[in-house]
Amino acid sequence: MATHRRARAAIGICTVAALTLTACGGSGDDADDVVTTDGGFALNTGETEQGGIVTVLGTVDLSHLDPAMGNDGNVNNVYELIYRQLTDFVYDEETGELEIVGDLAVGPGESNEDATEWTYTLKDGLRYEDGREITSADVKYGIERSLDPALAIGSDFHEIIDGAREYAGVYAAPEGLDSIQTPDDKTIVFTLQGPLAGFDAVAATQPFTPFPVGEVTVDQLDEQPISSGPYRVEEYTRGERLTLVRNEEWDPATDETRAASPDGYEFLFGIDGNTVDQRMVSGQGADANAMASSTNGLQPASLAQVMSDPAFQQRTVRSLPTCTMYMSMNNSHEALSDVRVRQAINHAVDKESVVTATGGPAMAEPAHTMLTPSVPERQEFDLYPTDQDLAIELLAEAGIAEGELTLTLDVRALPKWQAQAESVQQSLGAVGINVELNVIDAATFYEVIATPAQQNELAITGWCSSWMSGYPLLTPLFDGDNVTDTGNTNISQFDESVINDRFDEIEAIADVDEQNVAYGELDREIMEFAPVVPLVRETPLQMVGENIGNAFASSARSGYVDYSSVGLKNPQG
C-alpha cells in the first residue's frame, strides 16, 4: 500500500442537501421566537445576546484537538471555535446554499488560467491567543506539519499540492515544500500537482490552520491547542470536560463566519445518550443553557415524548441529510472479492429496517446512491432493491452455501449505530450469512477502520462533503490509488482499474458542468461493482435548551447545529 495519499475530502465537511421546509406558526410559549418546519421542528431558535456560557452535553469525547488528526463532523464543529483557515463556508438558511468566503484570507483565492496555481492574501489584524501576528509562513508551517506521518490521519485533501504526497513533514524535512511560497508575511502561493477549480474548498480544511513556525511539537496540540479563533482552551480533561473561554486577541472585524456571542463553552463528555435526552427535555436549571452535541441526536426511544409537546419540538432542530451512511465491504477479502457476493449483500439488506433502527422516517431516509441529493447532475437510481431470494441465488452462483460465510462487522459504540448494525446482521442472517459485531470505542472508531491492518470485513460508517461534486464524495472512497496504511478513506479497499482510469479522465475535464455530468454517471458505474451498501441518509434531531438561540441546521457543519452560531437568548437567565 502507498504510504502517502492522493488528495481527498475530509469527513467533517458536508454537502448541501435541500430539505423542503414550510414555515408555519408554533404553538408553544416561544412560538414568536422560532420558525418551525411543517413537522414542527425549529428552523432557528431565535435571536441571541452577547455573553454567558453554552454547555454542550455529549456521550463521545473528541477524537483529537490537533486539527491535523481529527476528521469527523463533531470535532470539526468544535475546531470552528478555536481555529481558522484560509477560507470558510457561509450557509444561507433561507436558500440552503453555501458560499466560500475568506477567513484568514481577504477572500477566495486567485488562480492562474488552468487552476494549477492559487494565491491568497491574509487580512490585517490576525493574531494568536498570545497576541503574536499570524503570517503566511505560519499557514505554510501548519500545512507542512500536518503531512508528518504521525499526524496524517485526518483530512488530507491538501495533498493535491505538488509534492505533498511524497513529503515527510516539517519535522523530518524542515526545508518545507517548494510548491508553497510565502513571498511576504501576507501572501501565500500554492502550486498544485494538477488543475483543481475547487481549491478554495480545500483551503477551508483543517490542515490550513496556522501555527507559529517551529514552535509546535508533534504531540503538543492534542492537549493544548494554539488558538487563532474566537475561543481558546482553558482546561481539557480527556473523557470528561473541555472548557473554552474567549480569545481576547480575536478580532470579530476580521471574521464574517463566526457569531461567537457566548463568553465561552463547556463541553461535557461521557454522558449516556438517554440521559442527555432527558436532561434536554426537562431543561431544568443550567440545562436551559445547554444543547446536545452533534453526535447526540435524539434517541429513538425519546422521539414520542418530544413529538407529544410542541414546546419540545420548537427547541429541536432536524439536521440536514447531508451524509450517506453506508456499509463498506473489504474487497480484498477472499469471499468479498467476488462481485456476485457483494451484489447479494446489497440485495439482502432491508434498508427500511435500517431506517427503523435509526429512529424511523423522522430521522432517516433510505439511500441507494453515494452522491448526495443536491450534487449537480446527480442521477437517482436503485440497482439493488431488497430481494433476499435473489441474494440467495447470487450467493449460490458464487459457490457459497447457506451458513458457510461468516463476516465481522465493525461498528461504532453508539446505540443508534449498533441498532443499524443489528438490522444488517438480521438481514444477512436471513440469506445465510453469519455476521459477528465488533463494537469499537466511539472516539477511536474512525482511526481504527481507517487502518487496514485493524479493520474487519465489514464496517458501517458515513461520508459527507460541503463541496457539491463527485470529486470529494467519490474519489476518496473508490479510487484505488487512495488505499493507504493509515488514514485510509477507501475503507472497502476497492481497486478497479476501469474506475481508477475514469477518475483520472474526469479530473482532467476543465468544464465544471461537464465534469458534474461525468461524476453523476460514475456514481452508477461504481455501484455496478457493488463495493459498498448505501444504507440511509440521516436527519438526526438535536435538542437545545429553551435559552439557546440561533440554533439551526447548517450544511457547513455536516448538517448539524453550528456551535459557532449559537448563543444565549438571555445571558442573565
TrEMBL record:
Q: Which organism is it from?
A: Actinoalloteichus fjordicus
Q: What is this protein identified as?
A: ABC-type dipeptide transport system, periplasmic component
Q: Which UniProt keywords apply?
A: Signal
Kindly list the organism's lineage. Bacteria, Bacillati, Actinomycetota, Actinomycetes, Pseudonocardiales
Residues in the signal sequence? 1-25
Mind telling me which InterPro entries this protein's record contains?
Peptide/Ni-bd, SBP_5, SBP_5_dom
Query: What's one GO-annotated cellular component?
Result: ATP-binding cassette (ABC) transporter complex
CDD domains from the UniProt entry: PBP2_clavulanate_OppA2 (cd08506)
Per its UniProt record, what SUPFAM superfamilies does this chain match?
A: Periplasmic binding protein-like II
The organism sits in which domain of life?
Answer: Bacteria
